[in-house]
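Chain and backbone:
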Amino acid sequence: ALAAIARQQRDPVREGRALNLGIAIAFLLRIALILMAGWVLRFQPLQWLAGGYLLWLFFSHLFSRSQASSSATGELENSDSTPFLRTVLALALTDLAFSIDSVAAAVAISDQLLLVICGALIGVIALRFTAGLFVRWLELYPRLETAGYSAVGFVGLKLIVALILPGLVVPEWFTLVTVAVLVLWGFSSR
């Protein structure tokens, strides 16, 4: 999904800059999230907001796809790119919403703040390089964008279900299998 957001710039140089800046801001937001993890985990409105935002991203992607397929006028898509700062903000907010779940897990595993921050740094660096790779793959595999947004929607749904049914624990293996199936489906058509 981050690669698809960056791709809205429609220029490889601007995409790279947007990814670099958006993910740098996301790293700072992750550190803030880690430092305030206890409060964030108790403050349910933020969790509702994150889950809702991820679901909104998913449904807006589906809506834009259906709009594009229903307008069979044969006209070329508008080549104007999305404003740069809007793309950067979308990248940072999407990563922040997506990382609420992972930060909660990291803080639950370790109380060593420096270790958790180093883990976040490694995750953000890996995210930057894989997002750049996925930007290129989006051109080759048309389903990959929908697969990424579906994974985002799944995580948003998971956050909201956890708020509605706090006793229900979704096993991590289920999350990994679901995302793996979505990724495989994304790569299944070239």
In short: The radius of gyration is 17 Å. Confidence is low (pLDDT under 50) at residues 72-79. Helices lie at 2-7, 12-35, 37-42, 44-70, 84-109, 113-140, 144-164, 172-186.
